[in-house]
Amino acid sequence: MxxxxxxxxxxxxxxxxxxxxxxxxxxxxxxxxxxxxxxxVATPGFNPDVEIEFTAFKTAVPILxxxxxxxxxxxxxxxxxxxxxxxxLGDTYLGPRLNLLHGQKVRVFFKNELGEPNIIHWHGLHxxxxxxxxxxxxxxxxxxxxxxxxxxxxxxxxxxxxxxHGMTARQVYKGMAGMxxxxxxxxxxxxxxxxxxxxxxxxxxxxFDENNQLVYVHSMHDRMLGFLGxxxxxxxxxxxxxxxxxxxxxxxxxxxxxSRIYKLGWDDGTPLVxxxxxxxxxxxxxxxxxxMMAPGERVDLWLDFSxxxxxxxxxxxxxxxxxxxxxxGKMQQGRGRxxxxxxxxxxxxxSHGGLGQGDKFPIATFKVTAKVSDSPKLPQHLSTIKxxxxxxxxxxxxxxxxxxxxxxMSPRINGRSFAMDKVDAAEKVALxxxxxxxxxxxxxxxxxxxxxxxxxxxxxxxxxxxxxxxxSRKTTHVNxxxxxxxxxGFLDKGWKDTVLLTPGEEIEIIKPFEDYTxxxxxxxxxxxxxxxxxxxxxxxx
Length: 541
Ligand code: C2O
Ligand code: CU
Ligand code: CU
Fold this sequence. Notes:
This protein is mostly beta strands. The protein has 7 helices and 32 strands. The site of one copper (II) ion (CU) has 6 residues, from loops.
């Protein structure tokens, strides 16, 4: 196998937590793979509109009162391009917000000064394989990686985060993520709230020790269920309070948590209005009693405080829901004493500090501090979405399976774990094709034990590359009572790159595989699951 780049073969092998045998890579695939053409230097012919220098490093930031918290952080410096392209979120572990425009050519020099391997993935952006942050490109500390891509995405919200295989969950937990916004001509015409009225709402959960240091999961059991923190942070801060004027805002909600699923809703029952989902504006605004947000998902919210009195406060909650963790029934033991005794609690529903998956808790407070007479109107038409049907795919009767299982302490896809050098026959996709893909729970043998049926839990399934459309959500095996607590919260009408599959559901999507050849990952965005191997890749050729 020839790897011509200067992250030579040895480092390539080393830099990944799993040492894979390069020789096992199918020959045909190897021959086509672009691994040998990774750029460590800028391409002379590529004239970027935007040039950014990213750095990964360790630092300490104030989060709680008292000691600073040791974190990992991305920071960025704009070398070339419009002012405002790189927007700091202040003294937080979150990286700066990148504000990009459709059509821009972007070059990023990424310098790893972290002391461990790292690579950045642009979650939601449709870019060439070698700029997608595939873990095979992880660089060691001291090295630089050059990304070059054209912004093909329309207006929407995406994000960047580390994608170092086997380390993603821990590195994201330590801080390595940030928001990306894309704007385009269509969006400009809509005159949506912008500037100080267009704000990030990055929701994450963390657990701190008595010295304000981050505590992460240790046991295999915790990793199988996913990390749940006991403190909710918004934009890197606890007890977040936004001071708002009595007018409409655009809040770009992003679930940047490792595995916590939020059910966003107002304390007073006011419905929520969404104008965008994962990386795209919706066709028309959607009004929902609450919105489910799994790790990796984004929702652009239209929050209108018009007519609210100065001094009034609204609290956004994660409202209670049930059934997204394994029902544990007979297997109750060990963990989560106390509240676990209450009957239907699932195992691992408790985080260390007692904030379970599905518990009710406040996320952020919005305090109206000024009255203004003017507010933008909610546009009734936001973008045009051509809905895919079976007529658009070449495999309507034979969807590509994404079968999820949790057996043998190993969360898998179609019975397999991720391997850098493996692609299945079903994962080879022709460039330019549109595929129907079926996402479902694979019923592993093992009955009701830990290894089998009882381990059914929700999985947010993310596919790299172009966004897809949800075609159907079948609910033949759901527990109706549990399901009723989440079922009105899905935003399935827009473009998605991450979709939450709850227990008993089956989802069909249609995804285009256009423009770029190469290896594109798909995985569970429960980051503990991802690192445990619940990830595979498509090979587009
Ligand atoms: Cu946000 Cu492959 O991940
Ligand atoms: Cu992604
Ligand atoms: Cu999962």
